[in-house]
């Protein structure tokens, strides 16, 4: 399995007071946020291919975003974005494939072995959004309702015998899922007392194996911060939904004002559903 053995010193995030880097000077830059799971996919890919010296990390503070990011780098104003060959590209799933095929380092896409392999690959990439939706929709109720999503993963992990990963050998599919499983697992464990690895041995082994990969572990956040961030987002949403369903309009308005104030002042909520608390 590819690993990133170089432990790098991570640069501080750039904010609205920071100058832009010398954009389009020939340097390849990966714009990320340390807390964004989409950006984390691309960051893991870069590390797995050993591209720490070839692709410079440029972390952005999403809560206090520099204006030049939207104006000069990436008009969509999101992370991740990759500056390469005088162009800036976005979308994490596109970027991990792009980096794998345009840069040196071990291939993160195993040779196509069979039709079964191709179908698995296609289905797993297509299922990611449903996986996240199903798993997180359960946050407001009984955590075990997410079981269907974790069963899907357990079945997928049982398809190939030549390794513990989705396609047997480690690949971009594992990278695509890892940041989301990293967040959902500790949240369900702490808040719902639901351990989705129980009775799902393949998924338990997958997490164990992923945690041996330094290229990935170097990108992980503190699980306590992840849980806190999900609590803030999902529990507030749940409260709003419950109040609106019982029609208590004035309480809803008051609580909305209260939480908005708290969110903006203390937590710096952004459009990113994975935004974590400001340090
Ligand atoms: N579909 C995009 C999603 C990227 C995304 O939503 N990133 C969030 C951070 S986790 C972001 O930049 N949000 C800022 C905003 O929406 O203004 C991808 O896969 O790259």
Automatic annotation (TrEMBL):
Short name of any one Pfam family annotated for the protein: GST_C_2
Entry keyword annotation includes Repressor: no
Catalytic activity line of the entry: RX + glutathione = an S-substituted glutathione + a halide anion + H(+)
PROSITE patterns for this protein: GST_NTER (PS50404)
Domain GST N-terminal as annotated: residue spans: 26-107
Keyword Nucleotide-binding: no
Gene3D superfamilies: 1.20.1050.10, Glutaredoxin
GO molecular function, one term: glutathione transferase activity
Enzyme class: transferase
Enzyme Commission code(s) on record: 2.5.1.18
BP GO terms, sorted: response to toxic substance
Keywords from the named record: Detoxification
Database matches in InterPro entries: Glutathione-S-Trfase_C_sf (IPR036282), Glutathione_S-Trfase_N (IPR004045), GSTL1/2/3 (IPR044629), Thioredoxin-like_sf (IPR036249)
Family: Belongs to the GST superfamily. Lambda family.
Protein name from the UniProt record: glutathione transferase
Species of the source: Theobroma cacao
